[in-house]
Specification:
alpha/beta; TIM Barrel; Jelly Rolls; eight-stranded parallel beta sheet; 12 helices; 16 strands; 24% helix
Length: 476
Protein backbone atom coordinates (compact mmCIF):
# COMPACT_ATOMS: atom_id res chain seq x y z
CA UNK A 1 0.00 0.00 0.00
CA UNK A 2 1.25 3.47 -0.80
CA UNK A 3 1.91 5.90 2.05
CA UNK A 4 -0.79 8.32 0.98
CA UNK A 5 -3.61 5.75 0.75
CA UNK A 6 -5.02 6.76 4.15
CA UNK A 7 -4.96 10.37 3.07
CA UNK A 8 -6.84 9.54 -0.13
CA UNK A 9 -9.47 7.67 1.84
CA UNK A 10 -9.83 10.65 4.17
CA UNK A 11 -10.39 13.00 1.24
CA UNK A 12 -13.03 10.88 -0.50
CA UNK A 13 -15.07 10.40 2.66
CA UNK A 14 -16.24 14.00 2.18
CA UNK A 15 -19.41 13.93 0.06
CA UNK A 16 -22.28 16.33 -0.71
CA UNK A 17 -25.51 16.41 1.25
CA UNK A 18 -28.69 15.71 -0.75
CA UNK A 19 -29.46 19.45 -0.80
CA UNK A 20 -25.96 20.27 -2.10
CA UNK A 21 -26.20 17.60 -4.77
CA UNK A 22 -29.59 18.89 -5.97
CA UNK A 23 -28.24 22.43 -6.06
CA UNK A 24 -25.26 21.47 -8.22
CA UNK A 25 -27.48 19.51 -10.59
CA UNK A 26 -29.43 22.71 -11.34
CA UNK A 27 -26.18 24.16 -12.78
CA UNK A 28 -27.47 27.58 -13.94
CA UNK A 29 -29.91 29.99 -12.30
CA UNK A 30 -30.61 33.71 -12.09
CA UNK A 31 -30.48 36.64 -9.71
CA UNK A 32 -33.01 39.49 -9.78
CA UNK A 33 -31.67 42.75 -8.32
CA UNK A 34 -34.65 45.06 -8.03
CA UNK A 35 -35.52 47.42 -5.18
CA UNK A 36 -35.51 51.08 -4.24
CA UNK A 37 -31.92 51.37 -5.57
CA UNK A 38 -33.40 50.99 -9.06
CA UNK A 39 -35.04 54.38 -8.57
CA UNK A 40 -32.05 56.17 -7.02
CA UNK A 41 -29.54 54.90 -9.62
CA UNK A 42 -27.37 53.48 -6.83
CA UNK A 43 -25.82 50.12 -6.07
CA UNK A 44 -25.93 50.43 -2.29
CA UNK A 45 -28.82 52.46 -0.86
CA UNK A 46 -28.43 54.56 2.27
CA UNK A 47 -31.56 53.38 4.08
CA UNK A 48 -33.20 56.79 4.25
CA UNK A 49 -34.97 56.61 0.86
CA UNK A 50 -38.66 57.50 0.68
CA UNK A 51 -40.77 54.42 -0.19
CA UNK A 52 -42.93 56.76 -2.29
CA UNK A 53 -40.32 56.66 -5.08
CA UNK A 54 -40.79 52.91 -5.58
CA UNK A 55 -43.38 52.77 -8.36
CA UNK A 56 -42.98 50.06 -11.03
CA UNK A 57 -45.83 51.01 -13.36
CA UNK A 58 -45.50 47.98 -15.67
CA UNK A 59 -44.13 45.31 -13.36
CA UNK A 60 -43.93 42.00 -15.23
CA UNK A 61 -42.53 39.20 -13.11
CA UNK A 62 -43.73 36.67 -15.67
CA UNK A 63 -41.38 38.33 -18.18
CA UNK A 64 -38.53 37.80 -15.71
CA UNK A 65 -39.43 34.13 -15.23
CA UNK A 66 -39.98 33.38 -18.92
CA UNK A 67 -36.69 35.07 -19.82
CA UNK A 68 -34.89 32.96 -17.23
CA UNK A 69 -36.57 29.85 -18.57
CA UNK A 70 -35.59 30.69 -22.16
CA UNK A 71 -31.99 31.33 -21.05
CA UNK A 72 -31.78 27.80 -19.65
CA UNK A 73 -31.88 28.80 -15.99
CA UNK A 74 -33.40 26.43 -13.43
CA UNK A 75 -34.28 28.99 -10.75
CA UNK A 76 -34.45 32.65 -9.72
CA UNK A 77 -33.26 34.38 -6.54
CA UNK A 78 -34.89 37.72 -5.63
CA UNK A 79 -33.30 40.52 -3.61
CA UNK A 80 -36.17 40.63 -1.12
CA UNK A 81 -34.23 43.13 0.98
CA UNK A 82 -30.90 44.77 0.09
CA UNK A 83 -28.58 46.78 2.35
CA UNK A 84 -30.95 49.79 2.35
CA UNK A 85 -33.52 47.73 4.29
CA UNK A 86 -36.44 48.28 1.88
CA UNK A 87 -38.61 45.15 1.71
CA UNK A 88 -40.32 43.89 -1.45
CA UNK A 89 -42.98 42.20 0.66
CA UNK A 90 -45.30 43.79 3.27
CA UNK A 91 -43.23 42.78 6.28
CA UNK A 92 -45.00 43.05 9.60
CA UNK A 93 -41.79 44.23 11.24
CA UNK A 94 -40.94 47.48 9.43
CA UNK A 95 -42.58 50.44 7.73
CA UNK A 96 -39.72 50.60 5.22
CA UNK A 97 -41.42 48.33 2.73
CA UNK A 98 -43.59 48.01 -0.34
CA UNK A 99 -46.62 48.56 1.92
CA UNK A 100 -45.80 52.27 2.00
CA UNK A 101 -45.09 52.61 -1.72
CA UNK A 102 -47.50 53.56 -4.52
CA UNK A 103 -47.21 50.07 -6.04
CA UNK A 104 -50.71 48.55 -6.05
CA UNK A 105 -51.69 51.25 -3.54
CA UNK A 106 -49.58 49.61 -0.86
CA UNK A 107 -51.18 46.19 -1.29
CA UNK A 108 -48.48 44.65 -3.49
CA UNK A 109 -46.13 41.78 -2.69
CA UNK A 110 -43.43 41.22 -5.31
CA UNK A 111 -41.98 38.25 -3.43
CA UNK A 112 -45.30 36.44 -3.79
CA UNK A 113 -45.72 37.48 -7.41
CA UNK A 114 -42.30 36.14 -8.41
CA UNK A 115 -42.69 32.94 -6.37
CA UNK A 116 -45.93 32.24 -8.23
CA UNK A 117 -44.40 33.11 -11.61
CA UNK A 118 -41.50 30.74 -10.95
CA UNK A 119 -43.89 27.95 -10.02
CA UNK A 120 -45.85 28.54 -13.23
CA UNK A 121 -42.65 28.34 -15.32
CA UNK A 122 -41.18 25.31 -13.55
CA UNK A 123 -38.42 27.34 -11.89
CA UNK A 124 -37.12 27.02 -8.35
CA UNK A 125 -37.49 30.14 -6.19
CA UNK A 126 -34.82 31.50 -3.84
CA UNK A 127 -34.46 34.51 -1.57
CA UNK A 128 -31.74 37.05 -0.85
CA UNK A 129 -32.08 38.80 2.51
CA UNK A 130 -29.21 41.15 3.26
CA UNK A 131 -28.01 40.89 6.87
CA UNK A 132 -26.85 44.51 6.69
CA UNK A 133 -29.75 46.94 7.17
CA UNK A 134 -28.92 50.64 6.93
CA UNK A 135 -32.49 51.62 7.82
CA UNK A 136 -33.41 49.66 10.93
CA UNK A 137 -32.82 51.37 14.27
CA UNK A 138 -31.73 48.14 16.00
CA UNK A 139 -28.94 47.32 13.56
CA UNK A 140 -25.73 47.15 15.62
CA UNK A 141 -27.53 46.48 18.91
CA UNK A 142 -26.96 42.73 19.02
CA UNK A 143 -29.84 40.41 19.89
CA UNK A 144 -32.58 42.95 19.15
CA UNK A 145 -31.51 43.14 15.52
CA UNK A 146 -31.00 39.37 15.29
CA UNK A 147 -34.60 39.02 16.50
CA UNK A 148 -35.70 41.35 13.70
CA UNK A 149 -33.68 39.61 11.00
CA UNK A 150 -34.85 36.18 12.11
CA UNK A 151 -38.47 37.36 12.16
CA UNK A 152 -38.19 38.58 8.57
CA UNK A 153 -36.42 35.39 7.55
CA UNK A 154 -39.30 33.45 9.10
CA UNK A 155 -41.84 35.46 7.08
CA UNK A 156 -40.06 34.65 3.84
CA UNK A 157 -39.57 30.97 4.67
CA UNK A 158 -43.17 30.29 5.72
CA UNK A 159 -45.35 32.36 3.38
CA UNK A 160 -43.99 31.74 -0.12
CA UNK A 161 -43.83 28.00 -0.73
CA UNK A 162 -40.66 25.92 -1.26
CA UNK A 163 -37.42 27.95 -1.13
CA UNK A 164 -34.43 26.31 -2.79
CA UNK A 165 -31.75 28.68 -1.53
CA UNK A 166 -31.24 31.42 1.02
CA UNK A 167 -28.50 33.65 -0.37
CA UNK A 168 -26.67 35.56 2.40
CA UNK A 169 -23.82 37.85 1.46
CA UNK A 170 -21.11 39.02 3.80
CA UNK A 171 -21.85 42.77 3.68
CA UNK A 172 -21.49 44.35 7.10
CA UNK A 173 -21.38 48.08 7.79
CA UNK A 174 -22.85 50.80 9.96
CA UNK A 175 -26.54 51.15 10.64
CA UNK A 176 -28.42 54.43 11.29
CA UNK A 177 -26.98 54.47 14.83
CA UNK A 178 -23.40 54.30 13.53
CA UNK A 179 -22.88 50.80 14.91
CA UNK A 180 -21.93 47.54 13.16
CA UNK A 181 -23.85 44.34 13.89
CA UNK A 182 -22.16 41.08 14.86
CA UNK A 183 -24.40 38.58 13.09
CA UNK A 184 -25.69 35.49 14.88
CA UNK A 185 -25.12 33.26 11.86
CA UNK A 186 -25.84 30.00 13.67
CA UNK A 187 -29.28 31.28 14.67
CA UNK A 188 -30.00 32.28 11.06
CA UNK A 189 -28.87 28.86 9.82
CA UNK A 190 -31.02 27.02 12.36
CA UNK A 191 -34.05 29.03 11.28
CA UNK A 192 -33.55 28.01 7.65
CA UNK A 193 -32.89 24.35 8.51
CA UNK A 194 -36.05 24.21 10.62
CA UNK A 195 -38.39 25.95 8.18
CA UNK A 196 -36.94 24.95 4.77
CA UNK A 197 -34.72 21.88 5.33
CA UNK A 198 -34.12 21.39 1.59
CA UNK A 199 -32.82 24.95 1.05
CA UNK A 200 -29.09 25.49 0.72
CA UNK A 201 -27.37 28.28 2.63
CA UNK A 202 -25.22 30.11 0.11
CA UNK A 203 -22.11 32.30 0.31
CA UNK A 204 -22.17 33.28 4.03
CA UNK A 205 -23.44 29.80 4.73
CA UNK A 206 -22.08 26.27 5.01
CA UNK A 207 -23.52 24.78 1.79
CA UNK A 208 -22.26 26.83 -1.19
CA UNK A 209 -19.24 29.13 -1.34
CA UNK A 210 -18.49 32.23 -3.35
CA UNK A 211 -15.99 31.65 -6.18
CA UNK A 212 -14.00 34.72 -5.12
CA UNK A 213 -14.88 37.44 -7.63
CA UNK A 214 -17.82 38.97 -9.51
CA UNK A 215 -16.21 38.95 -12.94
CA UNK A 216 -17.24 35.43 -13.97
CA UNK A 217 -13.70 34.09 -13.59
CA UNK A 218 -13.12 30.58 -12.21
CA UNK A 219 -10.17 28.51 -11.10
CA UNK A 220 -8.52 26.12 -13.53
CA UNK A 221 -8.73 23.47 -10.78
CA UNK A 222 -11.93 23.85 -8.78
CA UNK A 223 -12.23 21.53 -5.80
CA UNK A 224 -15.42 20.90 -3.85
CA UNK A 225 -13.57 19.29 -0.93
CA UNK A 226 -11.83 22.08 0.99
CA UNK A 227 -10.70 22.95 4.50
CA UNK A 228 -13.64 23.23 6.91
CA UNK A 229 -12.62 26.73 7.96
CA UNK A 230 -13.53 27.91 4.44
CA UNK A 231 -17.17 27.69 5.57
CA UNK A 232 -16.67 30.46 8.13
CA UNK A 233 -18.93 33.46 7.35
CA UNK A 234 -16.23 35.73 8.76
CA UNK A 235 -13.81 34.52 6.09
CA UNK A 236 -16.45 34.98 3.40
CA UNK A 237 -17.11 38.53 4.60
CA UNK A 238 -13.39 39.31 4.45
CA UNK A 239 -13.17 38.00 0.89
CA UNK A 240 -16.47 39.28 -0.48
CA UNK A 241 -17.98 42.56 -1.54
CA UNK A 242 -16.67 45.46 0.48
CA UNK A 243 -17.22 48.30 -1.99
CA UNK A 244 -19.97 49.14 -4.46
CA UNK A 245 -17.55 49.96 -7.27
CA UNK A 246 -17.16 48.57 -10.76
CA UNK A 247 -13.42 48.14 -10.11
CA UNK A 248 -14.26 45.63 -7.38
CA UNK A 249 -16.72 43.76 -9.56
CA UNK A 250 -14.17 43.08 -12.31
CA UNK A 251 -11.22 42.19 -10.14
CA UNK A 252 -9.65 38.76 -10.81
CA UNK A 253 -9.24 35.90 -8.37
CA UNK A 254 -6.67 36.29 -5.63
CA UNK A 255 -3.66 34.17 -6.79
CA UNK A 256 -3.14 33.05 -3.18
CA UNK A 257 -6.55 31.38 -3.33
CA UNK A 258 -6.08 29.62 -6.67
CA UNK A 259 -5.61 26.17 -5.09
CA UNK A 260 -8.14 25.38 -2.37
CA UNK A 261 -8.32 21.59 -2.45
CA UNK A 262 -5.31 19.77 -3.84
CA UNK A 263 -3.85 16.90 -1.87
CA UNK A 264 -0.86 19.10 -1.00
CA UNK A 265 -3.00 21.98 0.30
CA UNK A 266 -5.23 19.75 2.43
CA UNK A 267 -2.59 17.43 3.89
CA UNK A 268 -2.33 19.31 7.21
CA UNK A 269 -6.01 20.28 7.51
CA UNK A 270 -7.67 18.49 10.40
CA UNK A 271 -11.26 19.05 9.25
CA UNK A 272 -12.62 19.03 5.71
CA UNK A 273 -15.96 19.99 4.17
CA UNK A 274 -17.87 19.57 0.93
CA UNK A 275 -18.20 23.24 -0.05
CA UNK A 276 -18.76 23.66 -3.82
CA UNK A 277 -18.29 26.99 -5.57
CA UNK A 278 -20.82 29.30 -7.21
CA UNK A 279 -19.84 31.81 -9.90
CA UNK A 280 -21.96 34.93 -9.53
CA UNK A 281 -21.86 37.67 -12.17
CA UNK A 282 -24.16 40.34 -13.58
CA UNK A 283 -25.20 40.71 -17.21
CA UNK A 284 -24.35 44.43 -16.83
CA UNK A 285 -21.51 46.21 -15.02
CA UNK A 286 -23.79 46.88 -12.04
CA UNK A 287 -26.16 44.63 -10.15
CA UNK A 288 -29.05 47.11 -10.24
CA UNK A 289 -30.39 48.78 -13.37
CA UNK A 290 -28.66 51.99 -14.51
CA UNK A 291 -29.79 53.68 -17.75
CA UNK A 292 -26.18 54.62 -18.52
CA UNK A 293 -25.37 50.90 -18.88
CA UNK A 294 -27.92 50.10 -21.58
CA UNK A 295 -25.12 49.80 -24.13
CA UNK A 296 -22.90 47.77 -21.79
CA UNK A 297 -24.79 44.47 -21.69
CA UNK A 298 -22.34 41.58 -21.86
CA UNK A 299 -21.74 40.20 -25.33
CA UNK A 300 -22.93 36.74 -26.26
CA UNK A 301 -19.31 35.63 -26.69
CA UNK A 302 -18.51 36.77 -23.14
CA UNK A 303 -21.55 35.01 -21.68
CA UNK A 304 -20.71 31.83 -23.59
CA UNK A 305 -17.19 31.96 -22.15
CA UNK A 306 -18.53 32.45 -18.62
CA UNK A 307 -21.02 29.59 -19.00
CA UNK A 308 -18.45 27.13 -20.38
CA UNK A 309 -15.90 28.02 -17.70
CA UNK A 310 -18.29 28.01 -14.74
CA UNK A 311 -20.86 25.27 -15.39
CA UNK A 312 -18.08 23.46 -17.25
CA UNK A 313 -15.57 24.00 -14.45
CA UNK A 314 -17.29 22.34 -11.47
CA UNK A 315 -19.13 25.45 -10.31
CA UNK A 316 -22.71 26.60 -10.65
CA UNK A 317 -23.53 29.85 -12.45
CA UNK A 318 -25.65 32.63 -10.93
CA UNK A 319 -26.31 35.29 -13.60
CA UNK A 320 -27.93 38.54 -12.51
CA UNK A 321 -30.72 40.39 -14.32
CA UNK A 322 -31.66 44.00 -13.50
CA UNK A 323 -35.25 45.14 -14.15
CA UNK A 324 -35.82 48.77 -15.10
CA UNK A 325 -37.86 51.33 -13.12
CA UNK A 326 -41.04 50.24 -14.90
CA UNK A 327 -40.52 46.68 -13.63
CA UNK A 328 -39.52 45.07 -16.92
CA UNK A 329 -36.20 43.76 -18.21
CA UNK A 330 -34.60 45.90 -20.90
CA UNK A 331 -35.01 44.51 -24.46
CA UNK A 332 -31.21 44.36 -24.86
CA UNK A 333 -30.92 42.07 -21.83
CA UNK A 334 -33.82 39.87 -22.92
CA UNK A 335 -32.37 39.45 -26.41
CA UNK A 336 -28.95 38.49 -25.05
CA UNK A 337 -30.39 35.99 -22.58
CA UNK A 338 -32.45 34.37 -25.34
CA UNK A 339 -29.27 34.09 -27.42
CA UNK A 340 -27.45 32.46 -24.51
CA UNK A 341 -30.27 29.95 -24.05
CA UNK A 342 -30.18 29.10 -27.75
CA UNK A 343 -26.43 28.55 -27.58
CA UNK A 344 -26.74 26.19 -24.60
CA UNK A 345 -29.62 24.15 -26.02
CA UNK A 346 -28.15 23.86 -29.51
CA UNK A 347 -24.58 23.18 -28.40
CA UNK A 348 -25.42 20.27 -26.08
CA UNK A 349 -28.36 18.73 -27.89
CA UNK A 350 -26.82 15.87 -29.88
CA UNK A 351 -24.33 13.61 -28.14
CA UNK A 352 -22.04 12.32 -30.89
CA UNK A 353 -20.64 9.73 -28.50
CA UNK A 354 -23.87 7.74 -28.82
CA UNK A 355 -23.01 7.01 -32.49
CA UNK A 356 -19.36 6.15 -31.83
CA UNK A 357 -17.65 2.84 -31.27
CA UNK A 358 -16.79 2.85 -27.58
CA UNK A 359 -13.80 1.12 -25.97
CA UNK A 360 -12.64 1.27 -22.36
CA UNK A 361 -9.65 0.01 -20.45
CA UNK A 362 -10.56 -1.78 -18.22
CA UNK A 363 -13.22 -3.11 -20.59
CA UNK A 364 -15.84 -3.75 -17.91
CA UNK A 365 -16.39 -2.45 -14.41
CA UNK A 366 -16.54 -4.61 -11.27
CA UNK A 367 -20.24 -5.26 -11.89
CA UNK A 368 -19.51 -6.50 -15.43
CA UNK A 369 -21.00 -3.42 -17.12
CA UNK A 370 -19.51 -1.94 -20.29
CA UNK A 371 -18.71 1.69 -20.92
CA UNK A 372 -22.06 2.27 -22.62
CA UNK A 373 -23.49 3.23 -19.22
CA UNK A 374 -21.46 6.46 -19.57
CA UNK A 375 -23.48 7.68 -22.57
CA UNK A 376 -26.62 8.59 -20.63
CA UNK A 377 -26.81 11.25 -17.90
CA UNK A 378 -28.30 9.28 -15.03
CA UNK A 379 -27.19 7.68 -11.76
CA UNK A 380 -25.09 4.97 -13.45
CA UNK A 381 -21.32 5.15 -13.20
CA UNK A 382 -18.37 3.01 -14.26
CA UNK A 383 -17.25 1.37 -11.04
CA UNK A 384 -13.60 0.33 -11.12
CA UNK A 385 -11.83 -1.89 -8.66
CA UNK A 386 -10.58 -0.09 -5.57
CA UNK A 387 -6.89 -0.27 -6.46
CA UNK A 388 -7.29 0.91 -10.06
CA UNK A 389 -6.75 4.61 -10.68
CA UNK A 390 -6.17 4.79 -14.43
CA UNK A 391 -9.06 4.73 -16.87
CA UNK A 392 -8.88 5.07 -20.66
CA UNK A 393 -11.94 5.83 -22.79
CA UNK A 394 -11.79 5.84 -26.60
CA UNK A 395 -14.51 6.88 -29.05
CA UNK A 396 -14.12 6.34 -32.79
CA UNK A 397 -16.38 7.18 -35.71
CA UNK A 398 -16.50 5.47 -39.15
CA UNK A 399 -16.71 8.92 -40.73
CA UNK A 400 -15.12 12.07 -39.24
CA UNK A 401 -17.36 14.24 -37.06
CA UNK A 402 -17.04 17.93 -36.24
CA UNK A 403 -16.53 18.13 -32.48
CA UNK A 404 -16.83 21.30 -30.43
CA UNK A 405 -17.09 20.11 -26.82
CA UNK A 406 -16.22 17.14 -24.64
CA UNK A 407 -18.25 16.81 -21.43
CA UNK A 408 -17.03 14.64 -18.55
CA UNK A 409 -18.77 14.03 -15.24
CA UNK A 410 -17.87 12.25 -12.03
CA UNK A 411 -20.45 10.71 -9.73
CA UNK A 412 -19.95 13.20 -6.91
CA UNK A 413 -22.19 11.23 -4.56
CA UNK A 414 -18.89 9.43 -3.91
CA UNK A 415 -16.85 12.65 -3.63
CA UNK A 416 -14.54 14.30 -6.17
CA UNK A 417 -11.76 11.93 -7.15
CA UNK A 418 -10.01 12.74 -10.45
CA UNK A 419 -6.77 14.68 -10.06
CA UNK A 420 -5.43 14.64 -13.62
CA UNK A 421 -6.54 13.66 -17.11
CA UNK A 422 -5.47 13.94 -20.76
CA UNK A 423 -7.50 14.20 -23.95
CA UNK A 424 -6.17 13.01 -27.32
CA UNK A 425 -7.67 13.63 -30.77
CA UNK A 426 -7.10 11.75 -33.99
CA UNK A 427 -7.71 13.75 -37.15
CA UNK A 428 -8.05 11.89 -40.49
CA UNK A 429 -4.64 11.17 -42.08
CA UNK A 430 -2.82 12.43 -38.99
CA UNK A 431 -1.39 10.79 -35.87
CA UNK A 432 -3.17 11.03 -32.55
CA UNK A 433 -2.21 14.29 -30.80
CA UNK A 434 -2.60 15.60 -27.27
CA UNK A 435 -5.50 18.07 -27.23
CA UNK A 436 -5.37 19.12 -23.59
CA UNK A 437 -4.33 18.19 -20.07
CA UNK A 438 -6.43 18.94 -17.02
CA UNK A 439 -6.70 18.32 -13.31
CA UNK A 440 -10.17 18.33 -11.76
CA UNK A 441 -13.44 17.12 -13.27
CA UNK A 442 -15.99 17.09 -10.45
CA UNK A 443 -19.68 17.40 -11.24
CA UNK A 444 -19.04 18.59 -14.79
CA UNK A 445 -16.09 19.50 -16.99
CA UNK A 446 -16.58 21.03 -20.45
CA UNK A 447 -13.48 20.84 -22.68
CA UNK A 448 -13.38 22.83 -25.89
CA UNK A 449 -12.29 20.81 -28.93
CA UNK A 450 -12.11 23.66 -31.44
CA UNK A 451 -14.73 22.39 -33.91
CA UNK A 452 -12.19 20.00 -35.40
CA UNK A 453 -13.04 17.16 -37.77
CA UNK A 454 -12.01 14.09 -35.77
CA UNK A 455 -12.20 10.34 -36.26
CA UNK A 456 -11.18 9.32 -32.75
CA UNK A 457 -11.08 10.81 -29.26
CA UNK A 458 -9.36 9.31 -26.22
CA UNK A 459 -9.66 10.35 -22.57
CA UNK A 460 -7.07 9.11 -20.10
CA UNK A 461 -7.60 9.48 -16.36
CA UNK A 462 -4.00 9.50 -15.17
CA UNK A 463 -4.35 10.16 -11.42
CA UNK A 464 -7.19 9.95 -8.93
CA UNK A 465 -7.98 9.77 -5.24
CA UNK A 466 -8.73 6.04 -5.02
CA UNK A 467 -10.58 4.71 -8.07
CA UNK A 468 -12.25 7.26 -10.39
CA UNK A 469 -16.03 6.94 -10.74
CA UNK A 470 -17.01 8.55 -14.04
CA UNK A 471 -20.74 8.87 -14.71
CA UNK A 472 -20.91 10.52 -18.14
CA UNK A 473 -18.97 11.22 -21.32
CA UNK A 474 -20.42 13.30 -24.12
CA UNK A 475 -19.08 14.75 -27.37
CA UNK A 476 -20.97 17.61 -29.05
Amino acid sequence: MKAFDKEEQRLVRIVPSPRQLAYQQREFYGFIHFTINTYTDMEWGMGNEDPAIFEPTELDVMQWAKTAQKAGMKGLILTCKHHDGFCLWPSAYTQHSIRNSPYQEGKGDIVRELAEACAACGLHFGIYLSPWDRNHRDYGSGKAYDDYYTAQLTELLTNYGPIYTVWMDGACGEGPNGKVQVYDWERYYQTVRRLQPDAVLSISGPDVRWCGNEAGMVRSSEWSVVAKDMTSPALTAALSQQADTEEFRVRPLDPKLEDLGSRFVLKNEQELAWYPAETDVSIRPGWFYHPAEDDRVRSLENLKEIYLNSVGGNTTLLLNMSPMKNGKLHPHDVKRLHELGDFISHSFQNNLAEAAELWLRPTTDIQGRTGHILLKEDDCYFEMAEGEKELEISLSWPKPVKASYLVLKENIKFSQRVESFEVYLEIPDQLQTLCCQGTTIGYKKIIRLGEKEISKLTVKITEARVCPLLSFVGVY
